[in-house]
Amino acid sequence: MKKIIVFLFIALNLITQAQEKDWVLTTGKVEAYTGIVAANGRIGILPEDIPFQTKSIILNNVYEKESELGVSRIISGMNFANLDIFIDGEKITEQNVSDWKQSLNMKMAAFETSFTFKDKAKITYSIYALRNIQYAGYIDIKVLPLKNIKIKATGKISTPEEFIKPLSTFRILKDNEVTMPILQTVAKSKFGKHTIGTSATFVWHAINSGREEQRPHLTHDIVSNYENHLSFEKELKKNETYEFAWTGAECSTQDFEDPQTESERFVIFNLLTPRNDLIDQHKKLWDDLWQGDIIIEGDVQSQLDVRLALYHLYAFSRGDSNLSISPMGLSSQNYNGHIFWDTELWMFPPLLMLNQDIARSLVNYRSDRINKAKEKAINFGYKGAMFPWESDDTGEEATPAWALTGTFEHHITADVAIAFWNYYRVTQNKEWLITRGYPMLKEIADYWVSRSVLNADGSYSIKNVVGANEFAPNVDDNAFTNGSAITALKFATEAAMEVGEIPNPEWGNLASKIKIHKFPDGTTMEHSKYAGEIIKQADVNLLSYPLNVISDEETIKKDLKYYEPKLADEGPAMGQSVFAVLYAKLGNAKEAYRLFKRSYEPNKRPPFGALAEAATSNNPYFATGAGGMLQVVLFGFGGLDITNDGIVQKNAILPKEWKSLTLKGIGPERKTFVITE
């Protein structure tokens, strides 16, 4: 009987290890380091490879002008996630630790760091951007003394220098016998648009946190108005584990009338909620997210790469927010945190397959800003709704004026319409279609009617645009712009009939007559004057996938053969993803797998594999590229397709490098699709 128990234990342990290797990314000390963000759709916390240090905290949908004459930029908020830890009077630094290890557990969305400080202590801490308390972070710390030691912990709120009028305080709030120590800083953003309130405190797990007499003595130190510190000291005995946490919350006037007080309430909630309850709620919400998952058997590295991509799309979004995702998510201020076509065309389709709640938030973000899009159309002499190339909280154009994309990259408006109709096709949410979906599709179709120009031969052109291939500005009849407009017009017609309206006959007439230019051999031209130049994006090939404007196999192959060699090395990763999907749909698993790997492997940055935008850049995490590689798996190898009958599977194909592919939690019915050899 004892042998059976031992064998059973070994088997369970092996299963646990096997599962962990598919979910956990781990590194030791490295020279080149790109961090991986812990995020919950509201805040993003970016750790560093220095003990107890984080690089930044990004606040979703909170914008301030980047400069006095500049456009908006997402705010890098006050950093409440840094601590200084001293043992026997010596500060822990990267120079005096050993056995350094950092891990991202994607399943639990926990970022863990562990190390040994000299011969005195083993320390582990985990960073959570709490999914349940969406404006808060939580750093859970465990110290194992290797001898008797004295520890000093200092939690900090560090305010960026560009903030104005910071007020740093420490107060002990009290209700009956419950006391609540609150470190706090309140300040104005760079030009005074927002008030930001940040609160933080220590949590001691082994005692009743509300009993002041049981706590270590707290010392408050305002180093400056921009540096607010709270400390305690404790003598620890050898081999007696000591556990505590540091928790902070950050709120702004973008979301709250009184961000100062709200930040206090979140911290008090975390202080007085037992740790296991708080973290278990966070884990449960991530378990719910992972009901939509991709499982690859036989290729651990591909499994980790795909999971990391999906982890980031989940971490950067929420189903309850009606917010969208910027190209770099909540990892940095790159691209100013603005919303582009990246969401609708690249990130939205995988999320639509795997999590319709998040998908609804992404489309509702646009619906909430339709009035600004209608104003923009009027301002430029058009009808309907015209969406900005870069969008922020206002819904107005947020692209820097010097960038031609902001004035001329108009396919974004069609991309929005395509996402809207696909959301309805998957969810069949008729009420949403009536209240949000069709009103949007109608306005966008009217825009394209007013935007198109009649030619002498009866065809229509869309002139003076920047297409997906941004290397060719101010061209006529860009292939993807025209193809996306055709698709949006057709979808508007279908949506009208679905809600019992009579579609505008101009929509269908225009959709059938918009020009797509061809070379003499039938290869699709990137625009009316295209002569074989290097391209930034797989512009033409998007007409085959996802638009299906070009569906005959001969033309698809011609376009693939012609444009793949023309894709620039410095172009973003998604072009290779499009090629990979198309080869998979053509039944060529070898080419599809080659291009799948090429779509992201050159862009991976050590030590965790964060994606940069291009092989030649270093601006992770590129959520757009994650969306592209996930589309290869779902719509290429997995054979999924969005139709008026919902999600169907057509011609799935498996690379020889994989034993099986399982797509779990697909669509509202949470279906599972398994592709095997």
From TrEMBL:
Report the Pfam families cross-referenced here: Glyco_hydro_65m (PF03632), Glyco_hydro_65N (PF03636)
State the signal peptide span: 1-18
Q: Does the keyword Nucleus apply?
A: no
- Keywords, alphabetical: Hydrolase, Signal
The Glycoside hydrolase family 65 N-terminal domain covers 39-204
**SUPFAM superfamilies named among the record's database cross-references:** Galactose mutarotase-like, Six-hairpin glycosidases
Using the record's annotation, list all stretches that form the Glycoside hydrolase family 65 central catalytic domain.
307-500, 527-600
- Which organism does this record belong to? Gaetbulibacter aquiaggeris
In terms of PANTHER family, this protein maps to:
GLYCOSYL HYDROLASE-RELATED, PROTEIN-GLUCOSYLGALACTOSYLHYDROXYLYSINE GLUCOSIDASE
Q: Which GO terms describe its molecular function?
A: hydrolase activity
**Tree of life domain:** Bacteria
Q: Does this entry carry the keyword Hydrolase?
A: yes
InterPro entries per record:
6-hairpin_glycosidase_sf, 6hp_glycosidase-like_sf, Gal_mutarotase_sf_dom, GH65_N, Glyco_hydro_65_M, Glyco_hydro_65_N
Q: What name goes with this protein?
A: Glycoside hydrolase family 65 protein
